[in-house]
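Every protein is a chain of amino acids, and every chain bends into a shape of its own. Below is the pair of lines this work produces for a single protein:
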Amino acid sequence: MTKPSQPPLEVRRARPSDLDALLRLQSQLGRHHREIQPDNPRYRVTEAEWETLLQRDLDSDTTRIHIAEWDGDIVGFVRLSFVEKPWGTSCEVDTLIVDETRRRYGIGRQLMSAAEHAAREHGAAAIRLNILAGNDLARAFYEGLGYEILAWRYGKPTPR
């Protein structure tokens, strides 16, 4: 089965008017992460908490959000943080999500290309990201873009 031809895709900086679409996509990502790690407390964040975070990020000098707009619909976004390290600025990819109905069209690749461009523009010495253990599709995606495993990252909930 062949895919229908793809309308033009525009990748641009997110605007405050994009917030509802960002929340819709963040909700999809949260569901996906809860399927992989249902007991992880990070994935119990409420929509109101995400809204506060994303609104703050839209106004931040150290965070950028780029969206992918396809035929007038926002179908994905990448959220970046710029962090000062002893060795220089690091660009951290905090979130990459493509709408579950629009995957396999190269949208994630274009968003990551925008992220890499923003990292260079911001003077970042490196771009890094984390994926969940068990998220084999994400691992294959990033390895296909040339990303390599640099470290193992461990986590443990703290007692309340």
Notes: The CA atoms of residues 76 and 98 lie 4 Å apart. The chain has one domain: 9-144. The helical segments are 19-36, 47-58, 107-121, 136-144. The mean pLDDT is 87.
